């Protein structure tokens, strides 16, 4: 190892590390050719294997004593495939996210419609809850038709919120209060199209009365022939295998009524709703089916996922070279960060950007 | 007080994410490690060694993360660290030539002496082996070593990911054991993150105690009678609670010690403050700014210009703050003195180890002064967590409440809209790895398939670190965090795709492009997953693999692997040379 003598007259004692700590062939540094080779391979791996959505997933997590966060991804092609499973005379089939209260018989307590073009990109929604730590929730993602049809695509694990701090604990735990739903994906075409950027508060809400009875709308199996019935043999042959696989995995497609169909003529969306690309002012919009007045706007939170097929803002670039910050550039980013702010709420005072000169 | 004096358990958590980059001669992120060694770990060792030499009472509990240990054990580290010190030294010399102000020149001379001292300490006294130094202090009873999850994965956000939490805890413990030769009793939960049921995983991994944020105990059921001043039995695992007062005295934005006007200004680093210094020789090529560990200014206070940094003045303040810290601990303990107590009230004061020297440049001086203050204060006994537990046990049972440390006290710091894609990608990868692990785990670790599987596990673990979701979208490190995540997930996708594809018959060769489409499949015999895409371009499963019965080893005789796959595998093993003895059984499902 080429270690220079650090101090004149001071014998250098080389490290006495057991050789077993790092595999022998990993010891030492590569020369420049070796480093270049490593860089090239790492870059090639990232180019060939960009982040992709390979599975439809829905994760429900506790944020804090007041909020749950649902995040999901829908694998490309699945929505179209699943829509093909609905009878041809059903229009307005839309993806839908539902929040269920497990300890109350899987009662639906909140739901929201999602855009039809959300495949591939992640979506996020937050739910304001106040049921307390003993209440168990589950989220479901599926397709819903205006007539009340429901096809489950995926469901989350059960989640609960932590208890409130004692000093602010108010009311008996488990008491139900109005729900608030945040919007997972913003209208397309919004300027701030990067994943994670906060949008102005939205008033979209699609709440379901907690007491609504969930009864089959499509008596099994007369309308919904299942999974391998007319719907698959008719206009959506590709759906057959898909739905059979869903069933085989124990996530049997459910067909339930969840809310009355909205008034108005059938179509892609009813009055009071507008779909993506059809905002009330002609801009791209979002379906609005709830009672906005119920929800204080300051509590609404909304984010959008990235548009199009790009998973991340720069995931689709596929640059054959390392990102600039990685190899060093005139505008380093990591130079300005610290690695130890994990426990710090904020740093002590007088840390303002006072010009030292 | 009757039975005993009050006790203080100072707990430091030393952790850095895995930033080793053998593909670069000088990587900016590796400077984090070098700066931490120079300004945090070596000074801390000096404080503890000095206390030991004088027979002082200072003791502390130290958590060493497996990622940090791995980087400290890297045989190339001494040479790299030496080069870093020399660059810092050269920068000092350059500045001394440039500066005309006598005060600044004197300060630079002072910095130069410190650099010399660190170099002498690291090489001449410690032989370049920090781990051995920590272990020696552990064996001497001056320090109690703990460890944390393998890559600092935040357990509450990994619990739904198959095998993730058991793997993080067990791989972390095994890595610590392999790197130190010691068996850790205690576990530092990354970000102090706890969820109900985690105690079972902690116990199953072999740990006996851990530590949670204050509200984890205070909101527990039943509420502990001693609050955070004694550990509780949280279901087979003892849990200590972080003392909020001692935390606030350091971290409070209004009264935290590091904000005193006499301390060095963190944000006025020579490399960041546009001070006109020539950083060309210090920073990696093409990087215009970065921390140097050198600074001319103190916090000062007020909106005006910053005043010059005066080391002697700052050192005096550190003594004052240490004295204040001890007085405060005694005052809190005295509140309980009126009641009949059967055990000494314990103050658990955990901090990031890198706070002391990085954020708070005089932090090591504070610790040294604290040691002296404790020597002169028989009513406050410094202990380690394990020592307190052995002597006094738990005060009762308690179901600990979900909690983390940090800004919000819950998961919200790491679970933000900006990070949603990370959790989904990790979940997706964890599910894929479960299928592959169950299928291929019997293959010899030295076979190409066994190596692919283990390297995929390493990439998955590395992507799970909480550091990335902490930084993502909220700091200057966001781009680096995103790149690390993308890189590890891409490597995972390659490794699993190659594993699924297997060797190609007839010595066929293909590049990585030929593996596209394989990464999402559930394995060549696995059941279809509801979300599993039927790739349009995925080639058919290789017949020679499909015909093999489950669990049958292909052994070392595997042949026909494309050269591109083997070369890429070897490169990734070199890039992510961590957990060399990875045991796949740690991924418990």
Strand residue percentage of chain B: 5-15%
Round the mean pLDDT of chain B to the nearest integer and report it.
89
Strand content of chain A is 5-15%
Largest sheet of chain A: 4 strands, antiparallel
CATH superfamily of the largest domain in chain B: Glycoside hydrolase 38, N terminal domain
Low-confidence stretches of chain B: 522-556
Can you describe this structure?
The complex is a heterodimer of chains A (about 350) and B (about 600). With about 350 residues, chain A is α+β, with helices and mostly antiparallel strands. Chain A is about 10% helix and about 15% strand. In chain A, strand 3 (about 95-100) and strand 4 form a beta hairpin. In chain A, about 45% of the residues are buried. Residues about 1-25 and about 170-355 of chain A have low confidence and may be disordered. Chain B is α/β, with parallel strands linked by helices and about 600 residues long. Chain B has 2 domains: about 5-15 and about 45-70 and about 130-410, Alpha-Beta Barrel (7-stranded beta/alpha barrel), CATH 3.20.110; about 415-585, Up-down Bundle (immunoglobulin/albumin-binding domain-like). In chain B, strands 1, 2, 3, 4, 5, 6, 7, 8 and 9 form a 9-stranded mixed sheet that branches. In chain B, strand 6 and strand 7 (about 240) form a beta hairpin. Residues about 520-555 of chain B have low confidence and may be disordered. At the A-B interface, helix 1, strand 1, strand 2, helix 4 and helix 5 of A face helix 3, helix 4, strand 8, helix 14 and helix 16 of B.
Write a concise synopsis of the structure shown.
Chain A has helices at 32-48, 78-83, 230-233, 239-248, 324-327; strands at 57-64, 67-73, 94-101, 107-113, 123-128, 137-144, 150-155, 180-181.
